[in-house]
Design goal:
This protein is mainly alpha-helical and 361 residues long. It has 14 helices and five strands. Helix 13 links the parallel strand 4 and strand 5. Helix 4 crosses helix 14 and helix 7 runs antiparallel to helix 8. The longest helix has 22 residues. The chain is globular and about 75 Å long. The termini are far apart.
């Protein structure tokens, strides 16, 4: 009996080792169809882009590279960008993806990398046990996520919830718990391109809007379709919901007493600082920006933002400077702008870049 248990343990360890070994060869986006599409499109001709945008839905749904390109061209500034934003991606995923894209797809034209200072390391419970989240959970990503969570000032219970979710997702990815079939499926579709996720200009920008049936246009998953429909209905129905959200934005943006202490964001700031220096040595300028409508407010972000060099940052979140970004008529739900709002947002994005980018020779 003792020998039997020993053999079972050895076989279990061997199976786990093989599983981890196999997972090593899958890219960070194997379970994210939107990211798969964007990577496959970009890698065909990376040199056509001299700017890349990274972030979550606040970038994917709000930042139009075409509008920015058009507006900057009027000032003799050439910027042809691609939007790598993906719904639910947080800051750690954004910087991890930026490094992945740079390291894997040579682009001698790349001059600018824009990264959103949105949600730091928050976990959306809707994404638990989904391939979309699990595929990102590598050892290096987990290390950054847990380090940021450790220093955040949120309630301990919430931080533990996020940490638990990320660790479970890492285990699911590393040991292929119920995911082997999905990884095999990825191998069959790994070169596919779904143009819906690229937008009409094929630049990665897809605004949120309702179609003629009152449904969310171009939802990526049934989960996002449900969440967006419910939040949109409530947003249009209840003005107090929008007001509550805007009050949170105002408080966390302007009230210095609610901002994190420098020591609480030292690690988060070091990630930004290291990224700026790393790419500057390669002739690439990294620019971080505060986006409007960050779901959890600006408690951590404001402290990090204030410490960044002036030439490497700009702010689109200020509710006084940009009150239109918080108006109901430009909102799709509490967290997102509608198509008209996204277009307005992109015009202002371009104006901010005029101050940071020199005219093309």
């Amino acid at each position: 009996m003792k020998k039997l248990f020993s053999n079972i343990i050895i076989l279990g360890l061997l199976a786990a080792a093989i599983s981890v070994f196999v997972s090593w060869f899958f890219p960070i986006y194997w379970g994210d169809n939107i990211q798969l599409t964007k990577i496959n499109h970009y890698k065909q001709k990376p040199n056509q882009y001299n700017a890349l945008f990274f972030g979550g839905s606040l970038e994917y749904r709000h930042v139009s590279p075409e509008i920015i390109k058009s507006e900057l061209a009027k000032k003799q500034i050439y910027l042809n960008g691609f939007n790598f934003g993906v719904d639910s991606h947080n800051f750690i995923q954004a910087i991890t993806e930026a490094d992945y894209v740079y390291d894997h797809y040579k682009n001698d034209s790349l001059k600018y990398i824009f990264v959103s200072l949105s949600t730091e390391a928050y976990l959306s419970y809707q994404n638990l046990h989904t391939n979309k989240l699990i595929c990102w959970m590598k050892a290096s990503t987990i290390d950054k996520l847990l380090s940021v969570l450790y220093y955040q000032t949120d309630h301990l219970a919430f931080r533990l919830f996020c940490a638990r979710g990320y660790l479970m997702s890492w285990g699911e990815n590393a040991f292929n718990f119920g995911k082997l079939k999905d990884k095999i499926k990825y191998l069959k579709i790994k070169n596919d391109i779904d143009t819906i996720s690229l937008g009409k200009n094929l630049d990665g920008f897809v605004p949120l809007e309702l179609n003629e049936k009152g449904q969310v246009a171009n939802p990526e998953t049934e989960i996002s379709k449900y969440v967006l429909m419910v939040s949109t209905i409530e947003y249009k129905k209840r003005a107090d919901s929008a007001n509550w959200f805007n009050d949170t934005i105002f408080k966390t943006y302007f009230d210095a007493n609610l901002h994190a202490k420098d020591k609480d964001v030292d690690y988060l700031y070091s990630l930004c600082d290291n990224m700026i220096k790393k790419y500057a040595a390669k002739g690439i300028k990294v620019i971080f920006y505060l986006p409007a409508r960050v779901p959890f407010g600006y408690t951590q972000q404001m402290t990090v933002y204030k410490r960044l060099p002036e030439e490497n940052k700009f702010d689109l979140a200020n509710p006084i400077k940009y009150p239109e970004f918080y108006e109901t008529k430009y909102g799709f739900d509490n967290f997102h702008l509608n198509k008209a709002g996204a277009e307005l947002y992109s015009y202002q994005f371009a104006k901010e870049l005029e101050k940071l980018i020199a005219p093309s020779p």
